[in-house]
Amino acid sequence: MEVANLKEMFVAQGQLDATIAINHNITYKTTRSRRTLALIVEIGELANATRCFKYWSNKPSEAKEVVLDEYADGLHFFLSLGIDIGSSKNEYEISKPDDDLTQQFLNVYSLISLFAEEATEDNYEVAFSAFLNILPLLGFTWKELEEAYYKKLGTNYVRQETNY
C-alpha cells in the first residue's frame, strides 16, 4: 500500500486554475459541470489507452508513457474539483482493489456520477480514492504518477501561454 500526499499538488493545481481563470474569465462556480464532464472524458481516454475493455481485440495497451499521461489528465481535473468544493483531505491510501480494471473504471464512473449529483466532500473523496486505486491495477507507482502530473502541468502552462 502506498500513500499519496497531494498537498503540493493541490497548491500547484490551484495556481494553474488561477491562470486559466484569468485567461478565460471563468470561475470554479461557472465551470464545475464542465470540469466534471472533462474528468469523465479524461477517464474514458485513460480506459481507452489501457484497452482493458476491448475484448474483441488482441492489441496491447498503449505505451506506459501514454497511459500515465492520460492518468495525469484525470488527476488534474480531480484536483481542480477538490479545490472547488474545499476538500481538506491531502492524503489517500492507494491499494489494489479486488475488482479487475474494467470493473474499477465502472466503479469510478458511478462514483463520479454521485459526485455530479451532489458535490459533497464525502462523494468527492470516495470517487477520488477509487480513481487512485486504478494505479496499482495498471502496475504504476504513486511516484510515477507524480512525475507524469508535473510533466503535464508544465505542458498545461505552455498551452495557456500559447492560447491553446
Describe, in short, the structure shown.
The protein has 164 residues and is mostly helical. It is built from 7 helices and 2 strands. It has a single domain (2-161), classed as all-alpha NTP pyrophosphatase fold, CATH 1.10.4010.
Structural write-up:
- The protein has 164 residues and is mainly alpha-helical.
- It has helices at 7-24, 28-50, 64-85, 101-117, 121-132, 134-138, 142-161, and strands at 2-5, 91-94.
- The longest helix is centred in the first third of the chain and has 23 residues, at 28-50.
- The N and C termini lie far apart (38 Å).
- The mean pLDDT is 96.
Q: What is the architecture at the second tier of CATH?
A: Orthogonal Bundle
Q: Ranges with pLDDT <50 over ≥5 residues?
A: none
Q: What share of residues are in beta strands?
A: under 5%
Helix content: over 70%
Return the average pLDDT rounded to an integer: 96
- What is the CATH fold-level name? all-alpha NTP pyrophosphatase fold
Structural class: mainly alpha
What general form does the structure show?
globular
How is the largest sheet built, in terms of strand order? 1-2
How many helices in DSSP terms? 7
